[in-house]
Specification:
With 295 residues, this protein is an all-alpha fold. It contains eleven helices and no strands.
């Protein structure tokens, strides 16, 4: 019997380790290894970063529409209104397709991370998995907003919110479920405000070489996160109000939340400030997170 040389044995060792892992973990091991290969792809990573650009474009457009409303103009300051405004621009359909594909890539990338999160602290591992899964859902939803228009359709975010709220309210314990949803949205808004005010968003970024970029990241991040947090806080409050009154018409989505802010004393000024903040959040996502963000 011929003996296997040490050099050949060294080359076979990684294969033996992978086979042992597959026998131990079964299909989950193969899924994790496939996800790892996908996540290590530079082309996949570059495509995924386009999802951050798409999110930035969407938020910047919503911010501009909010500024129009603050100045007495019209428009729908939500995802469907923003994408519809983009579709009306020359060459807008090409940008919509690019944003759709970028969001799809980022959603898939975040989904692969669910299978790669490891560590000795099981609580932290499941926390990371929940965060990655949540990000996959969020960017998938943003991608759908672009995808509907890319395929020639249209949507109404406000009407969708009202319809879904009405369906849930009609179910047993529907008011409780809607109320909890509103509380979660408001809680996320508070977290965004905290993340912006304390500059915790810097943890999402890798090294930023130039001082100019560092200052841009800080300025756009602080204002952007606080502005988005305020809009989510009001949005959550409207959902809670819909639950308390059992009136789905009160759950009017982001556009309704911003218009509610506009109706307050000095609302034009507050809405203008939030609009500027949303534009800055869009710049943060498109210029900073897309380029320097950790993946």
């Amino acid at each position: 019997i011929r003996r296997i040389s040490p050099a050949v044995h060294c080359r076979l060792r990684p294969l033996e380790d992978r086979l042992a892992t597959d026998r131990k973990h079964g299909s989950s091991g193969r899924v994790a290894r496939t996800a790892e290969r996908a996540a290590d792809s530079k082309a996949f990573e570059r495509a995924a970063r386009m999802g951050y650009v798409a999110s930035g474009v969407l938020h910047a457009l919503i911010g501009f529409i909010a500024l129009q409303i603050a100045g007495g103009g019209g428009g729908d300051a939500d995802s469907s209104g923003a994408v519809a405004a983009l579709a009306d621009q020359p060459g807008g359909i090409f940008l919509i397709w690019a944003c759709f594909l970028g969001c799809l890539a980022l959603s898939l990338f975040q989904a692969t991370r669910v299978f790669l999160d490891t560590g000795e602290d099981r609580k932290e591992v499941w926390k990371k998995r929940a965060t990655d899964a949540g990000s996959a859902v969020v960017y998938g939803a943003i991608g759908i907003s672009f995808g509907v228009f890319a395929l020639g359709g249209s949507s109404d975010s406000e009407q969708s919110h009202v319809t879904w709220t009405a369906r849930i309210l009609s179910q047993p314990a529907g008011q409780v479920l809607v109320g909890l949803t509103g509380a979660v949205i408001a809680g996320i808004g508070v977290y965004f405000i905290y993340k912006g005010a304390t500059r915790k968003f810097r943890k999402d970024l890798g090294p930023i070489p130039a001082r100019t970029w560092q200052r841009t990241a800080t300025a756009t991040g602080v204002a952007g996160f606080v502005a988005k947090g305020i809009s989510l806080l009001i949005l959550g409050g409207l959902v809670v109000a819909a639950a308390v009154t059992a009136d789905p018409e009160k759950s009017t989505g982001l556009d309704g939340a911003l218009r509610t802010l506009h109706e307050a004393p000095l609302g034009w000024l507050a809405l203008g400030a939030v609009g500027v903040g949303l534009v800055l959040y869009g710049l943060y996502m498109a210029l900073i997170r897309a380029r320097f963000g950790k993946l």
